[in-house]
Sequence to fold (169 residues):
Amino acid sequence: MSVLRLLDRTLTKFVTWLLLFFFVMMLGIAALQVLLRIFLHTGIIWGDVAARHMVLWVGFFGAYIATREDKHFHIDVLTRFLNPKLRSWFSAFSDLFAIVVCCFMLQASVTFIEVGMDADSMLFLQISQRMAAMILPVGFGLIMVQFLLRMIVNVVAGVHGPAPEEPAS
Fold:
């Protein structure tokens, strides 16, 4: 379990830094666009397109963090009435269902990028349309990994009982 916790913490730190980077870049480009339009009556040609695509990246990285912190969308009406072991098993099954959904979404997003996008189409600054859209499979893959890690923890808790809380890092 310690290896899984290390993997989880490392991946979360990496995603958090990426989230911060894309969020700051998105806000910076948007603010610069506004300032350039107000004071110089011009703008960055690719600024709006870049900001729109960065919203997707920020959204998926934020969804990963939400999944890790158990703040992702879920219905817990039934689990409130279960004892801790059954709650762990129910949560593990719920996580498995989410993994399957993420897997289908990952496959669909790969198909969308391969079939639905022109390989030679550039968005801005020599960044291809396909490269910008790679957040779709990457994002669903990251969320799927987080659900897998949670499922393993829930299965272990279902077998051995809930683990003691880990100190915050």
Q: What stands out?
A: Residues 2-40 form the longest helix (39 residues). Residues 29 and 47 are 6 Å apart (CA to CA). The mean pLDDT is 89.
